Structures are given as structure tokens and as C-alpha cells.
């Protein structure tokens, strides 16, 4: 079996063990955290927010956010609450904005989401919903066909500590490929996605572990898919984009958070029922934000690599936390007990006729 597909089985075993451990920890620690949150919420009545500041990316992986803004779904569901959208290019910048209090809600990658929770001692943010699964690939020049051939090459990721940066470094370590400079190591450079495309065309980088639509854009520029991250996960599912909220905002304005999630659910239903129109709307939004629309081949390929659902795939998160340690982004795996608050998304899913999500021990109950 090729080295790059050995991990799927180990993920199943590791994830199962870690989920069980989290569940045990939840019994011991969940009560105190629940009491803290309950006490804060009980200190005053909740109400819709006057304003909600929302962060998201102008990327296809954030299509539910793009569509909800472009089609006015957020505005319809929020009613009198004003929406202030803000776009970002990478998750760590969103984390800084969340922890600094300049945004309230973020469509964000799993790695930065864990980082935000961990950096704040499990207090500042809560995971409230999923959004997008899959849509990340290691794409390289066609001459690279084995892991060993990556040695001496430069591979790009969007930003230090972002979701794809963690995934690449974890995979390199699991395949005994040193990270660094020189002919016997793989050089990992953190480069903004548009610049990665330019450098790939110039031959300055050999490829990148990238989210959509950037992996598709490199393929359109001549790259080959060396590894689809779906092959590393049971059932090919892993969270690419989720929604996290400042804990204080969630406590004070749960109605507003639920309104955001209702809009997201409507956007996802739009994607499922009217995929062509959804692609067009998403591309229009990207063009308005970045000044550049995606070509039809790139747009079609990128959408085909993604799955949209409000389930955050809680069972995968212990493995994601462990990966951050393997990638040397974190010193120890984050204790994710209490990270997930499923209240709002379960209400939205029930109204849409969908089953409640499996919290997999990440909630505080």
C-alpha cells in the first residue's frame, strides 16, 4: 500500500480512542464549565444583537457564507440585527480578530478554530456548526509521483498554523519526510494562495497543499493531484470550514446565532437543489470581493470536490487536535471538552427535517 494512504486506518483507531477519552474527561470537567457558562447566561436575559460582525473567506470553501451574503439570506433571517461582513484570507487572522473582539462569528478552518479555543483556555469561542467538508489536496508538478520525490522541493500552504499547513506537516512527518531546507528535506513555505499560483507558474514552487478553489487553479495551470486529503479520513469526511462564535456573544445573543445558522441552512439547501445557480452566485460574490472571477472549469471542479452540511463532524476533532501536535503547531493536544455547543444547530436542523448532530463528547453535557 502506498505511504500516503496508510493513515486512514490509524485515524480510525486514534480517533476512536481519543473520542472515548474526551467523553471521560467531559464527565469530570464538563460540569464546572457548564456551570460557568450557565452562570454567565443566567446573569441577564438574552436578546437579539443590534449588530453581528461576521468573518468569512472569498473562497468556494465558504460558499454558504458567500451565498447568504449575496442572496440576502443573512439579512432576511437577522431582521433588525445589522450584519457587518468582513473577509479574510487565512484562519489565523480570523482568530486574532475573534480573540481581539473585532468580529463575533467566523466561518473558519478547523485548525485555527482549535487554536482559538486552546489559546483562550477553552473560554473565548464555541463551535456551533459545520459548513463544508473536503476540498483540500496536495497538488504538484506532474513529475512528482512518489513521496521521496518531494525532497528538495518547496511546497506551499496558505499560512502558518492554518488547516492545510497542519495537514501537510502532519502527513510529511507520518511519511518520514524531514521539513526544512536542502536536498534531503521538504521546504514548507507559507504563501498567500494567489501568490502560490503565480510562483507555481514560474516554477518557483513545486506545488501546495491547498483548499479549493486554489488546488483546482493549480491543476488548471498544469499541476497534478498527488494526494486528495479525503483518502486520509474514514468515509472521506473531514471539516474544511466550520462556524465558531465568541462565547460571550453566544451567551448574550443566542437568537442571533440561530438566525445566522438558519441562513446557512438555507444556503446549503440552495446549493443542493440549484447547484448551477449556486456556483454562479458564489462566483459573483468572489468577483465582487477580489476583482477576479473563477473560470468555468475551475469553478466546476472546485464545487465537485466539496460537500456542504451543517454537521461539524465532531468525531474528527480529536484527531485534528492531535495533528496540530504532530505538525508542531501545538505543544499538546487541546482538551476539546465543551468546545461544541450544538443547541442552535440542532434546532435549525430539526426545523429542516434533519437529524441532530453527534457531539462525540465535545459538548459539555
UniProtKB/TrEMBL annotation:
Gene3D superfamilies: Periplasmic binding protein-like II (3.40.190.10). It is found in: Cell inner membrane; Periplasm. It comes from the Bacteria. InterPro entries: NrtA/CpmA_ABC-bd_dom. Keywords: Cell inner membrane, Cell membrane, Membrane, Signal, Transport. The keyword NADP does not apply. GO terms for cellular component: periplasmic space; plasma membrane. The keyword Nucleus does not apply. Belongs to the bacterial solute-binding protein SsuA/TauA family. This is Taurine-binding periplasmic protein.
Amino acid at each position: 500500500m502506498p505511504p500516503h494512504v496508510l493513515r486512514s486506518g490509524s485515524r480510525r483507531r486514534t480517533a476512536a480512542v481519543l473520542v472515548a477519552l474526551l467523553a471521560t474527561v467531559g464527565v469530570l470537567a464538563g460540569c464546572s464549565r457548564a456551570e460557568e457558562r450557565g452562570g454567565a447566561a443566567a446573569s441577564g436575559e438574552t436578546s437579539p444583537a443590534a449588530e453581528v460582525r461576521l468573518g468569512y473567506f472569498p473562497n468556494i470553501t465558504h460558499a454558504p457564507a458567500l451565498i447568504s451574503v449575496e442572496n440576502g439570506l443573512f439579512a432576511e433571517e437577522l431582521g433588525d440585527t445589522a450584519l457587518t461582513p468582513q473577509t479574510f484570507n487565512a484562519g489565523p487572522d480570523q482568530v486574532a480578530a475573534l480573540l481581539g473582539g473585532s468580529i463575533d462569528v467566523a466561518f473558519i478552518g478547523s485548525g485555527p478554530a482549535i487554536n482559538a479555543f486552546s489559546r483562550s483556555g477553552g473560554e473565548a469561542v464555541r463551535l456551533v456548526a459545520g459548513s463544508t467538508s473536503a476540498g483540500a489536496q496536495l497538488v504538484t508538478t506532474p513529475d512528482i509521483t512518489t513521496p521521496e520525490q518531494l525532497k528538495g522541493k518547496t511546497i506551499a500552504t496558505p499560512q502558518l498554523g492554518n488547516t492545510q499547513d497542519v495537514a501537510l506537516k502532519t502527513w510529511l512527518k507520518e511519511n518520514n519526510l524531514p521539513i526544512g531546507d536542502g536536498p534531503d528535506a521538504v521546504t514548507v513555505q507559507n504563501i498567500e494562495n494567489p501568490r502560490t499560483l503565480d510562483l507555481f507558474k514560474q516554477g518557483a514552487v513545486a506545488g501546495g497543499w491547498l483548499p479549493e478553489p486554489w488546488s483546482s487553479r493549480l491543476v488548471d495551470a498544469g499541476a497534478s493531484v498527488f494526494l486528495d486529503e479525503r483518502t486520509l479520513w474514514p468515509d472521506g469526511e473531514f471539516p474544511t470550514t466550520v462556524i465558531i462564535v465568541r462565547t460571550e456573544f453566544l451567551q448574550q445573543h443566542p437568537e442571533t446565532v440561530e438566525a445566522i445558522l438558519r441562513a446557512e441552512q438555507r444556503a446549503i439547501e440552495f446549493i443542493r437543489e440549484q447547484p448551477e445557480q449556486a456556483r454562479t452566485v458564489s462566483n459573483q460574490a468572489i468577483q465582487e470581493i477580489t476583482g477576479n472571477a473563477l473560470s468555468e472549469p475551475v469553478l466546476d471542479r472546485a464545487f465537485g470536490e466539496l460537500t456542504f452540511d451543517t454537521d461539524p463532524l465532531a468525531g474528527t476533532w480529536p484527531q485534528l487536535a492531535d495533528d496540530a501536535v504532530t505538525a508542531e503547531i501545538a505543544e499538546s493536544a487541546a482538551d476539546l471538552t465543551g468546545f461544541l455547543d450544538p443547541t442552535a444547530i440542532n434546532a435549525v436542523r430539526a426545523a429542516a427535517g434533519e437529524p441532530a448532530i453527534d457531539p462525540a463528547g465535545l459538548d459539555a453535557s
